[in-house]
Design brief:
By secondary structure, this protein is an alpha/beta fold. The chain is built from 9 helices and 6 strands. The relative contact order is 0.19. The protein has one domain: P-loop containing nucleotide triphosphate hydrolases (Rossmann fold), CATH 3.40.50. α2 crosses α9 and α3 crosses α9. A 6-stranded mixed sheet has the order 2-3-1-4-5-6, sandwiched between helices.
């Protein structure tokens, strides 16, 4: 009995569901349409910025591409799968620098924010995206189509090197995507690399957020009802661990469930994604309006 009770209450494939929930520790407006309308109505106040550039980075398999697809799904009102994702690869499925726009009202019209997807971070040296490439990307020096080289950063004479980036080619929001279902969350080397990225973004003044994905895989109570996310003791502890490991304030970490197995949209899944998107937009707006 003692051994069974010592297991994490809500970790994957562990203890029973009873007693795994606690008093709600964060409020969210479930099923409300205000956040959706906010995202749909958004236009940058700074006229020099036609679109906010959001750079996604994080460990391999964390759900960067799936998050892009999930935001697209929410805004289109149907399942969208433009950003290629992979459910089984042990290596980064994304190998090239790719920017995604989301269609708004019809062909040729887009929302005024874009997502840049890059190769995932891996702990060992010379594996995964080179940290120096992420630093250069934040400054707008890498063009779409660049094939990442884990062993070295892009050279200035590369055809995909942007020597003179304009404002909207630079990153306005940096979003770290982390998989909540990973047993150890982050290894020491990944933490070291991600801290390097975080400090470089700090020096550039770029706002930073975390999107915590796969919360339904991490916690059985959330799997049974996504509205349990802010009652889950396990998810709360994961957020606190990320805050300690990487230094993000707790209110800058947003748990979401990406669309993965669903064939139809779901209001509760949408609510979590929109909550994160609203803060991403607000953070980007604050940044570009002080330039």
């Amino acid at each position: 009995m003692g051994e069974e009770q010592s297991k994490p209450a809500c970790a994957p494939d562990h203890a029973p569901a009873s007693g795994t929930l606690m008093e709600e520790w964060r409020k969210i407006r479930w099923g409300q349409k205000e956040d959706l309308q906010f995202v749909k109505d958004y236009q940058p106040y700074n006229k020099e910025v036609k679109e906010l550039r959001v750079l996604l980075y994080g460990p391999i398999g964390s759900g960067k591409s799936s998050f892009i697809n999930s935001v697209d799904t929410v805004l289109q009102g149907r399942i969208a799968l433009r950003a290629q994702a992979d459910a089984v690869s042990a290596k980064s499925f994304t190998t090239k620098h790719q920017t995604y726009k989301i269609n708004k009202e019809g062909p040729g019209t887009f929302y005024p924010f874009v997502f840049t997807d890059i190769m995932g971070i891996e702990g060992p040296d010379k594996r995964g995206v080179c940290v120096d490439d992420i630093k250069l990307d934040m400054k707008g020096h890498i063009k779409d189509g660049y094939m990442f080289n884990p062993c070295s950063e892009i050279s200035e004479d590369d055809q995909y090197y942007n020597k003179n980036p304009i404002l909207e080619e630079k990153v306005q929001v940096l979003v770290c995507i982390i998989d909540a279902s990973s047993s150890s969350i982050l290894d020491d080397e990944s933490i070291r690399k991600m801290r390097q990225v975080r400090l470089a973004a700090r020096d550039l003044g770029i706002p930073q957020l975390v999107v915590l994905t796969k919360i339904d895989v991490a916690c059985k109570e959330v799997q049974s009802d996504v509205k349990n996310v802010y009652k889950s003791n396990y998810i709360k502890k994961m957020i606190e661990k990320i805050s300690v490991d990487l230094g993000f304030p707790l209110n800058c970490i947003f748990p979401v469930k990406n669309y993965a197995s669903e064939n139809e949209t779901n209001d509760d899944i949408d609510s979590l994604i929109l909550s994160a998107m609203k803060q991403i937009i607000n953070s980007g707006e604050d940044f570009v309006n002080q330039l």
